[in-house]
Amino acid sequence: MARVDFDSLSRLVTRIFTAHGMSQGNAAIIARVLVEAERDGTTSHGLFRVSGYLATLTSGHVDARAEPVVHDVAPSVAKVDAGNGFAQPALAAGRALVTQKARATGVAVMAIHNSHHFAPLWADVEPFAEDGLVAMALVNSRLRIAPWDARTKLLGTNPMAFASPRAGKPPLVWDQASSVMAQGQVLLAAKEGRQLPPDTLIDREGNPTDDPNELMRGGALRAFGGYKGSSIALMVEILAGALTGGQFGFEDTLGEQRGAATQNAGELLIVIDPARFGNGAFPVRVNTLLDHLRQGGVSRLPAEQRHKMRLANRDGIPVDDETLRALEALTGG
């Protein structure tokens, strides 16, 4: 097991992506997000995702050299056409504008469409909270969920993420799928030969199964919380798909047939400036609430484990030798 410093590992992943046709700028942005996930212990969305990105690039389903176009459409609204590229470069292109709008009006929304999201969603919102803003992101995705009372997949895993600043501490951040388990965790379980917990998955005939491989055979994940989680997945589909101008999950007809691991869909970001609400003590108030939860017996708050891992890995990210050799081989050099 080697420990690789953050910048070196980011450069390695960047070289892999550029070797497979991605532009330098896009590759550097996406590589950084994946390495951040690996550093923070979110391994299902870290280096494990490199192969999925390469499959998508090889399929030609994504424009690896897309240049996002940012549109200033209203005092509190920005829109970004990702150009059939990945969502992270589109977000990077529009971040300054949506931040400026949130500072000016109190609340701003950025709608990204014609995009592919295949990385941790917390990475999209955490930087806003580090700048003192509240942020929420919603992404619709390829069909993976069988909603309440359905026996086949009709909605995406449709993740959402939320970030809030705290006084003197790292932001409060959570990131979760609308499914009982994130697709990445299912794929990781399949790779490691692990069974899934009960009521996580159904096979293509609609029968409960604990075999993660059934998801790739036409099975479906269950929404978390039964009919309540199904309603949230539907909300995300409407806001991230319909409102942004992106595709619904059922409208994505190319991805799986061509080997791509992503869907051309949409992402909606909502950014709020607490200062505009006349509450300069907002970060302190958030701490008061979280302290109350802690006193009431809550043992771990969202993002705490990630921040602990980040601190533990500040001098190097653990990467096993086999993975490191495989990554080096993918650079083609």
Strand content: 15-25%
User: How do the helices and strands follow one another from N- to C-terminus?
Assistant: EHHHEEHEHEEEEEHEEEHEHHEH
Query: Main β-sheet: number of strands, strand sense, barrel status?
Result: 7 strands, mixed
Main sheet strand line-up: 2-3-4-13-5-8-9
Residue windows where pLDDT falls under 50 for at least 5 positions? none
Number of helices: 10
State the distance separating the first and last CA atoms.
Answer: 22 Å
Q: Percent of residues in helical segments? A: 25-40%
Mean pLDDT: 94
* Structural class designation: alpha+beta
How many strand segments?
Answer: 14
Shape by Cα distribution:
globular
| Rg, nearest Å | 20 Å
What does this structure look like?
It is built from ten helices and 14 strands. The chain has 333 residues and is of the alpha+beta class. The strands form three sheets. It has a seven-stranded mixed β-sheet, sandwiched between helices. A five-stranded mixed β-sheet has the order 7-6-12-10-11, with helices on one face. Helix 1 (6-19) packs across helix 2 (24-39). The chain is globular, with a radius of gyration of 20 Å.
List descriptors:
333 residues, alpha+beta, seven-stranded mixed beta sheet, five-stranded mixed beta sheet, 10 helices, 38% helix
